[in-house]
Amino acid sequence: MSRQFEVEKARAEAVVSAGERRRAALAEIDEAKFSWFHAKACIVAGVGFFTDAYDIFSISIAATMIGYVYHSGGSNTTNQDLGIKVAHSIGTFFGQLLFGWLADHVGRKRMYGIELMIIIVGTLGQAVAGHAAGISIYGVMIMWRFIMGMGIGGDYPLSAVITSEFAARRIRGRMMTAVFASQGWGNLASAIVSVICIAAFKSQIHSQPITDMKAVDQVWRLIIGIGCVPACIALYFRLTIPETPRYTMDIERNIKQASQDVDTYLTSGTYVNDPIHNNERAELPKASWADFFRHFGQWRNGKVLLGTAWSWFALDIAFYGLGLNSTTILTTIGFGSSTALPTKQENIYQTLYNAAVGNIILAVGGLIPGYYFSFLFIDSWGRKPIQFMGFSILTALFVVMGFGYDKILSTGSGKKAFVFLYCMANLFQNFGPNTTTFVIPGEAFPTRYRSTAHGISAASGKLGAIVAQVGFSRLVNIGGKNKFLKHILEIFALFMLTGVFSTMLLPETKGRTLEDLSQESQDHFVHDTNVSPSTSPLQKGQGSDSNYAEEDPRLAVQV
């Protein structure tokens, strides 16, 4: 009886020890001061989003060039243009779901970097895509952009969750926003590279015949191919980033290793995996389909997932509807197209150059400032106020741009005003729901489902992007070339209004710990151990009562 009593006592002490160690480690993460390790995590994750945005939005001008090359100075058909623009969104949709699930079941670290490899392969594949009698350039491009999209999709939940789980409570919003803001720089870089490449090939574009536009073909391949350079630079750092302590504690259930990781990387920025000595396993809630449906089947949890998913869906209807068609929109309002020059080749060059410059204006005038307004206010105002404000202002802007479309564009000054309103839409997408729909899903769910739920939310957004792209393609030319654009802007206004209501379902995550936001009691979260009396050293006769008492009682949780 005394031996049984000692075993039970050791087990009780082990549970207390594991639970207290977990709380101490989490408190150390949540209250840590900003350090080089935090900055490094933001940079490593941010370079991926820089690459994502570059690869996504470079297709806007590249698609126009492909039309010139493969249609002898003409343009892509509706289906061809739609295919090469929507393929990455479809790939991203599946990538977000797949990598979101894998990151919760295999590990954040094990998956981080794989998605970047996929992006690199997909980008290079596009740059060397060929055209022959038996295969169309469009089919090849669609395949490679789908593959690239799978990698981009994986980057969303992985980067969001890794940044969130490493971040201190007070600066978590700014760290996640800093990562996401890299999209703006990627968009700008895409436009700048386009201007440089187009200008570099000016004489060749002017001189080559319409039926053999080799220079334009080289330009679009160069623009897209350069997109893999930052990804290659970031790959090593992604492959060597440590596993997040929350994953190690709550999913691998190795609280001792996680505690050691916290102490090590917060001081030195490194970590040491010690599977021999750190092989304790605590008993915590495990992920399963039954537990997933139990957790999100409760309205207080399910409404959060519904709110994050619909908000992202509504936002991306407009964000990608505009972003992937910026060249079309700039041309429609007269900022980009050129038909007054003596030759077709000169008009093609000027149209491409103007469109690239226009994309720079849009990026500098709205996209990048919006991200950094969010950065400044997200940890003081909070996420919900910024998202409410963004959706409300976007509703008003799209109402004005849609219903006042004809009158605004009837004068030269009106066209300038339209460009200004377009920049303001970009500004309040990013100083609004485009940032917060990325941040909130990375905070609002339990560790065992955080990446999965972020993937579901992001995939909902990408579904919105697909709907927007297909809808834009099918609707924009109703009644004549680009005649339906004003009504598309009105449709965008309706979806922005629905985002106002879906925001009401979300919690305010500012300043709260991830464990508090999970809406799961932490008092008895570590509630049992895997050791049974029959497997303890005492039961096996491998030691006496006295020498077992000298052992660390936490060894009772050893597997």
Automatic annotation (TrEMBL):
GO terms assigned for molecular function: phosphate transmembrane transporter activity
PROSITE patterns found in the cross-reference section: MFS, SUGAR_TRANSPORT_1, SUGAR_TRANSPORT_2
Domain of life: Eukaryota
Membrane in keyword set: yes
Intracellular or extracellular location(s): Membrane
InterPro entries, per the entry: MFS_dom, MFS_sugar_transport-like, MFS_trans_sf, Phos_permease, Sugar_transporter_CS
GO cellular component: membrane
Keyword Nucleus found: no
Biological processes annotated in GO: phosphate ion transport
SUPFAM superfamilies: MFS general substrate transporter
Membrane topology: Multi-pass membrane protein
Region described as Disordered: spans on this chain: 527-559
Compositionally biased intervals (Polar residues): 529-547
Predominant location category: membrane
Domain spans labelled Major facilitator superfamily (MFS) profile: 41-510
Transmembrane residue ranges: 43-70, 82-102, 114-147, 184-201, 222-239, 352-374, 386-405, 417-433, 453-476, 488-506
Record keywords, A-Z: Membrane, Phosphate transport, Transmembrane, Transmembrane helix, Transport
Name of the molecule in the record: Phosphate:H+ symporter
Organism of origin: Kwoniella europaea PYCC6329
Lineage, broadest ranks: Eukaryota, Fungi, Dikarya, Basidiomycota, Agaricomycotina
